[in-house]
TrEMBL record:
Molecular function GO terms recorded: glycosyltransferase activity
Source species, domain of life: Bacteria
Keyword Glycosyltransferase: yes
Entry keyword set: Glycosyltransferase, Transferase
Domain Glycosyl transferase family: 192-342
Name by which UniProt lists this protein: Glycosyltransferase
Gene3D superfamilies: Glycogen Phosphorylase B
Lineage start: Bacteria, Pseudomonadati, Pseudomonadota, Gammaproteobacteria, Pseudomonadales
Amino acid sequence: MKKLLIILHDLSAGGAEKMMARLASALVDAGNDVTLLMLTGGGLHATHLDPRVKKVELRSLRTARAVPALTRFLRANRFDAQLAALTHVNVVAIVAAWLSGTLARLHVSERNAFSHDKHVNPDLMVRLAYRVAPLLYRLIPNPVICVSRGVAQDLVNTTIARRQDVTIADNPVLDDDFRDKLPGPPSHPWLLEKSSPVLVAVGRLAPQKGFDTLIAALAALADPNVRLIIFGEGALRDRLLEQARRLDVADRVDLPGYTPDPMAEVAAASCFVLSSRFEGSPNVLVEALSTGTPVVSTRCPHGPQDILIGGLVAPLVAVDDPIALARAIDLQLSIPRDLQRQSRIDAAARFMNASAVETYLAALLPRPSP
C-alpha cells in the first residue's frame, strides 16, 4: 500500500476539482492510502468525496498564503508521492515541497491548455503563477502530468518546458461498471416530454465554452423547432439570453443553471454539443459519449480530436463557426439516434477509473530502471 497525497485549492464545482476527487477515490479502490489536502477548503465536490479518502483543510484565506502551512504539513507527514493540480496550486506546492525537503516526491498536473488558460483569470497572483510556473516545471525533478497529448504539446510549444518535462495521464471520468448503469430520469420538462428535438450542453457560462457560437448555430438549424438547454452557472448568463432574444430563439433556449445529474439530462437529449474554444481533456464529452447520445464537438485545443479519434466517433467542426456547427447538428438529427451508439460508448471506456489510475500510478510511482 502506497501513501499518496493530492493537493488542491478546494473542491469547488470545476472539472479539475471533480476529477481530483474521483482520482482520490479510484486510488483508494486500487489499494492505496490517500489524503486529499485543500489549501483553502470546502466546495461542492467535498460531499461526494469517498469516505475512505482522508481530508485535510488548511483553511488559508488565499492559495498563495498557504505555503507556510503546507510546508509544515509536508514536513510532518511522509508520502510516497504528492500530486498537485492547477497552475497556481502547483507553484505553491513546489515552493512548499522545496522548503520541506520533499521535492523529489512532488508531481504537478496541468489540466487545461496552458497558452489559453493563462489569460482567463485576471487575479494578479494567478497571473504571476502562470509566469513563473514554466521555469519551475523545468527545474523540478519529475515531469508535469498533463491530461492529454494536446495539453502536453501546448506546454512544450508555448513555454520553456521541454518534451522531457511532460508526461500524460488520462482522467478517471467513468466508474468501471458504467456500462451496467442505467441513467436516471431527466428533470427538465423539455426532456421529460420531448415534443421536438432537444440539444443539451453542459459547462460554465464563460467565454471558453463557446455557448454564444452554439446559440448562433441553433438559429441557423434547418429545423426551427429544435430546442437548446445549457446546464451551468456563470457570468455570461444575461449576455447569452440577450443574444437568444436578438436572434429570435429565446423561446427555444433555456439556461436552468446547475443540475446535480447532468448525464441524466444528456442521456435523454437528441444530441449533446461541445462548443468550446479550448479545453484540456473535456470530461463532459467523455460522459456524454458514455450515455450513447449523439455528439457534436468543436475541434478545439485540446482533447476532442483525441477522444473522438479524429472525427471517426463523432463530428468535429471548426471553433467559432456557427454555420459548420449547425450543419453537423443537422446531420446528427437527421440520422437514426442509435447509429454508432456502441462506438461512442467504446470510445468513452478508455477513461474508466481502473484504466486511468494505472496511467497515474505509472507517472507517480515510476519503476526504477533495471
